[in-house]
């Protein structure tokens, strides 16, 4: 019964007054109520679809319109936003900590090696500016990243889905906390990394399907082309025609690090072709190829490859789950005025 009192301060006040009237001699109960009022923080609504319906009813349309304008200029923003969202949520949860700029006293997450190629921070800035003009200090940067990613997925031919909002922005962003699954991970290693964030093996296989619109720098798979695991030969699990093509594309100039599409067929479309590619041994990254080879994930890969509708449904569900990782709600965190800085430093 007392868990109900903890949820809302004003409810606690009313309950305490009623108890006082009904039992004036119950000193113990009165002391408990006072304690609850002192120790209970003020809380608000949890994540829900349409969180800003009253406070900023045009919020989602502003985000969608801004993303549409940017997509019209550069369709690769879908891959960029998927990567930004993933990298953000995997460190401290979905709290927009990846957006924070470093200062003299703090090296932020975006300075970490895996985040140096994360892009479209300017798009998030533009969305934030548009929202601040309509609804100052109302929409969090964490929700902006989540909604912008959803809208970009739909624009690229992927599923359209509702996602709950109400996230708050984090107050910490540290380079040394960045620990992301790497491109050379085994399925087992990647599975553990996802599990640490509350995501299942199925979630992992589906979310890696985001590589359907992604690219990779040659440095992340160069060893697979000529000296896989020190053998002096290419990775035998990679299609030899792809090996030859990537060798030509990547070249031998160590000062240059070109990129290539992870999905060699429908490179700008969010669909299930990624899974068909890895079934043909055309996975560019080691972790991608191993999804099709490992017994624990091979069946799901086949199912996703054979049914695009199943992929779309699964991807939407997994994206919602990703967006719920360790979110800040209620009066935790803040609503930043600038997505690049904490309010105390803005």
From TrEMBL:
Site keyed Transition state stabilizer: positions: 83
Domain Plant heme peroxidase family profile: from-to ranges: 46-343
Binding site residues for Ca(2+) 2: 212, 263, 266, 271
Cell compartments where the protein resides: Secreted
Binding site residues for Ca(2+) 1: 88, 93, 95, 97, 109
Entry keyword annotation includes Nucleotide-binding: no
Cofactor note: Binds 2 calcium ions per subunit. Binds 1 heme b (iron(II)-protoporphyrin IX) group per subunit.
Reactions catalysed, as given in the entry: 2 a phenolic donor + H2O2 = 2 a phenolic radical donor + 2 H2O
GO cellular component, one term: extracellular region
Disulfide bonds: 56-135, 89-94, 141-339, 218-250
Binding, heme b: 211
CDD domains: secretory_peroxidase
Binding site for substrate: 181
GO biological process, one term: response to oxidative stress
PROSITE patterns: PEROXIDASE_1 (PS00435), PEROXIDASE_2 (PS00436), PEROXIDASE_4 (PS50873)
Entry EC number(s): 1.11.1.7
Catalytic site: 87
Family statement: Belongs to the peroxidase family. Ascorbate peroxidase subfamily. Belongs to the peroxidase family. Classical plant (class III) peroxidase subfamily.
Stated name of the protein: Peroxidase
Organism: Saponaria officinalis (Common soapwort)
